[in-house]
Sequence to fold (440 residues):
Amino acid sequence: MSQPFILHGAIRSSAAWRVRIVLHLKGLAFEERFLDLNRGEHQRMEYRKVNPQMLVPALVAPDGTLVTQSMAIMEYLDETAPGPRVLPADAAGRARVRSLSQMVACDIHPINNLRVRNHVLDLMAHDSGAQSAWMDKWLSAGLDALEARLAEDRETGAFCHGKSPTMADACLVPQLNNARATNRELSDWPNILRIAASCEKLAAFAETSPAKLQGRESGR
Amino acid sequence: MSQPFILHGAIRSSAAWRVRIVLHLKGLAFEERFLDLNRGEHQRMEYRKVNPQMLVPALVAPDGTLVTQSMAIMEYLDETAPGPRVLPADAAGRARVRSLSQMVACDIHPINNLRVRNHVLDLMAHDSGAQSAWMDKWLSAGLDALEARLAEDRETGAFCHGKSPTMADACLVPQLNNARATNRELSDWPNILRIAASCEKLAAFAETSPAKLQGRESGR
Fold:
């Protein structure tokens, strides 16, 4: 049996979850090292030796190649590992899937992730209502744009792009999971909910979710 | 002569500049339609018909294919158009270039772009000092991480990756240009400055810069 991939991730990191989904969809053996970001485990010397950037996710391939940044990791897996492709075969399709992925990974997630969220809380004198309003604003703008596009494009199917899951679904489902955690009304996004339901029937999404992995941080 | 690419962009959008650089590097004929984002030209019905997302950049290929999101556009051009490649030939190299690109396009730019910057100004009761501090915080964190990585990786050359410009350089130079506009001391980032100097000797970077294009917004 070949060596597994090693994923340095975190249970509640939606970017790490994207990569878990793609590893699972492709049926690749992997071990995940769960860092507890709230305890600063990603900033300890032990992890710095693995990834000097001290960020998750980071993937170590069986040949020792280190890849960082979730979208670069998913592309790398699609180019080098066996299993179903998470990017379409045609250039226009790949462009669409990358664009949908980036609508989540560039336009929503970075503005609402842990470090920015915490900084907004500091700036707003620990007013948690202001923090929630911040998060809702960017989440809503981003998911509204994604919903409009999924509704309009003829390439939208049971999944973001056609009949099988792609990188775009691996970006969407973890972001929607964060939206659910806010108690916000989600019914403005029927296409997103329909696609998420298709995804959640698959083990690659269900078995890799934070809810399933709770309590597995390292050092516990 | 074949039809040109049409780029819907904006002079001061660093994401649109990334795409201009890649079009120019590849020697592709293109026309740019400059929208004035401050006047809300991207939200008018006329542009909505082109791109229902009302965002720039958006590229229309000679065959009519519309591609949005700057990284998806650069990948699409690299896959479909002639000219020098902006992604390396090997999978590990492509992963590194994508990762460096995303360190700018996901970890810096979205937190400091026009809509977030304006919203921070509103939240902070129009305290422009607080807005500058916000921008400096994320810019510094992002460029510090990028500098460390460029300093450590043996693949770093005259450009971010080896001896010729890639998508990573097309992301870096526009972001550094924004940093210059802040009057911040840049000497903490010697590798970034060295690489930017290599880039700025090339017409693809120099001729496409906001400084060169000033005053060319549509409707003026």
